[in-house]
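Reviewer 2 asked us to include a model.

Predict the structure of this chain.
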Amino acid sequence: MGIFEQLGRKTPQNALPANPMQMMQKLRSDPVGFLRQSGMNIPAGMNDPQQIINHLMQSGQLPQGRLQQAMQMAQMMRK
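Predicted model (structure tokens):
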């Protein structure tokens, strides 16, 4: 299951905000927690954004196409 499908998934233990702006706020305030809550496996102590992205891509958790989609969405939200 890809990141976008996981981000929209809600379970009692994994309740992410449905509102995109709330999601963005949660991602900004606690990126590692947000990604873990989304089902991503990020090693403890890893806080550098580039290091996290590299880990997710090398471990196959984040395909290149999904990364590009996420970056385009982030740019659109900044406007």
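The two ends are 29 Å apart (CA to CA). The chain is about 60% helix and 0% strand. We have added this to the supplementary material.
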